[in-house]
User: What shape does this take?
Amino acid sequence: MQPIFIAMARIRIEKTFDFEMAHALDDHDGKCKNVHGHSYVLKVCLIGSPINQTGHPKNGMVMDFGDLKKIVNNLIVDRFDHALVLWEGSPYLTPEVRKTQEKLIVVPYQPTCENLLSAFAEWLQNAIPEDVSLHSLSLRETATSMAKWFAADQQ
Assistant: This one.
């Protein structure tokens, strides 16, 4: 039986990324107020229609997974992997920490999964090709804890 081709099908593609990151949640009422680290798992889901152009190097693809990998690694993974991320008003952000930390990222927000996802979504929406859309992101901080971002929820 010949497969049925639907030229305007909308397909979701997803790629998973891993990175290690430390942070502290200032004023938190639990253990997370201390500097600590996690093994993060980021899932990026895009939606679009596969290219339908004979001879095109990306024919049949919504987006080349390799191209998506380059974008996410450049904007997020390479930057945050093995970094210490602190809020700009954190008491941990001392001159000594600024001087000794090779990979220190100072952000204008509490570096929670939720806030990181909001920043990641903004960066990715500005970097992906116009013919695809960011559908969703998830960021797993521990084996049992994750945050999710959906484009549909932002309207």
